[in-house]
Amino acid sequence: MKVKTISRVEKDFTQEVQSDKLKVFRNYDPALHPFERPREYTRALNAVKLERMFAKPFVGALDGHCDGVTALATNPKSLVAFVSGAADGEVRVWDLPRRKCVWNVYGHRGFVRGLAVTPDGNTFYSCSEDKTVKQWALRVKEEDEDVPTALATFTSKEPFLGIDHHWSQNMFATCGSKVQVWDPSRSTPTHEFAWGADSINSVHFNPAEASLLASTGSDRNITLYDIRVASSMRKIVMEMRSNALAWNPMEPMNFTVANEDHNLYTFDMRKMNRAMIVHKDHVSAVMDVAYSPTGREFVAGSYDRTIRIFNVRSAKSREVYHTQRMQRIFSVKFSADSNFVLSGSDDTNIRIWKAEASKKLSKVNPRERRKLEYNESLKERYQHLREISRISKHRHVPKAIKKAAGAKREAGAREQKKMANRRAHAKEGAVPHTNIREKVVVKEME
Predict the structure, then answer these.
(1) For residue 195, is it within any domain?
(2) Which of 136, 349, 386, 397 has its Cα between 20 and 30 A from that of 118?
(3) What sign has the CA pseudo-torsion 46, 49, 50, 51?
């Protein structure tokens, strides 16, 4: 009888210190590991269930405003300082880690319509319906120091409805009855643009092209301007009005607009006769949109009292946030590290949310990080299977929103059925197929 013995060198398996790990042998022969796929599927199913179980996105609320929060701005150089403006003209500077108001001042006599922080993070601008733009120092006020006063004030004949600072240069743009570009060292605008008769509600500089800016107007237009030639470049008219606009910081040729028809539209400025992607899910007008610094996601706040996070390549939202007390959302922002979402609503509160609902906020040790990465790879591998897809996509929403979404689906189905019947009983080609990406753009002008 032949006996096989196991021979091992003792020093290879002896711990020199107590913290040394024991050597473990593994045989990767597939024949010794049957049912690999079923076991992986079970792990993926458990991982997606745990993700939904630990999904608690709400971090905290900042209270102190006495009226609805209408504008927010983050500091590009700091994760601490954060600015908010309210409908009663109050401006507040916050310390986000401590969730504490640093200082506040009633700087305007009307709605604070826009806030913009300078690229160096030392000052910020606020604009209001009282026809003034004021510059403030973005710093922590000492306890015995007086209430901060404006460093500079810029006046106009019409109310201001929006403001944005240049990404690198010392200039800012405002909008109202027209788009105006300002130099802080001058009391009058250096450039003025007007294309149309209605008011302009938002304006934003392009993150890459230093002389390019875009605006949205109440006459349903989206317009591009070039400061170098001091003229308007291109303009499109949409079916309904756009309330806000945001450029993608990583793909500066693309921008997203928040529209009154409950959708968001991503355009390529090189080809604006059709939308690249239509982002759906909201059941009321979308009031604001803001991109993550990574350029892969953006957040939208709506009149339906929900916040939704979209992937830039996806038509459906990956997350929806809501609370029982939160009212209509007027402004949203991503934090500078893209880990948190900030929202300002009509109930006078600013809320802080996690960008990833189930992400752990405390420190993660290496072993835990490897486990989380393994779970993420499993969820990505099996995301198309029915049960995993159902669990990962399911979100609880208020009853009113669920009913409104159902009504929208029924209306869409009826419209599709009506058009199909028309085509079936008409001459071939008499009722053309319309693409929503092209239908939303009424006309383009240059």
Answers:
(1) yes
(2) 349
(3) positive
